[in-house]
Amino acid sequence: MKSSPKGGLVYSTDGGRMCPECRQTLAECICKTVAAKPPAGDGVARVSRETKGRGGKSVTVVKGLALDPLALASLGKQLRTLCGSGGTVKDGVIEVQGDHGERIVEALNKYGHKAKRAGG
Asked: Which of 8, 52, 75, 108 could form an SS bridge with 113, CB 3.0 to 4.6 Å?
């Protein structure tokens, strides 16, 4: 039996590895579900085009969706596939390479999200 610097149990011969925070086995750990905060956003997807810091190349940015990270990543994949381009999902923002604002707004409305154009 080992102890962590915090003084919690990290391994038990009965259950294997233990979570030092909730002292449950890793399979039964509840820390991640308790620590998961609700997604940020007001539910209105704001679709805009940005070129700042990208060497003049445009990127379509989708902000404000109140989705968990897995659902946001899945939606980002669908939008990138629809537009036939690359992109990423980071910090709750979907980025799709290129200027695809109208296509993304139509797709988001079709998927049941409120979407509107933002910026010029």
From this structure: 108
pLDDT single digits (tens) 21-43: 777 777 777 776 555 555 556 77
pTM for the model: 0.66
Q: Under a CB-based contact definition with an 8 Å cutoff, are residues 41 and 64 in contact?
A: yes
What is the token pair recorded at 57?
Answer: 């190349």
- Provide the residue ranges of all domains of the chain, joining segments of one domain with +: 2-35, 44-117
Could you tell me the maximum CA-CA distance found in the chain, to the nearest angstrom?
Answer: 62
Question: How far is the C-alpha of 27 from the C-alpha of 15, rounded, in Å?
Answer: 9
44-117 classified as CATH 3.30.780.10: yes
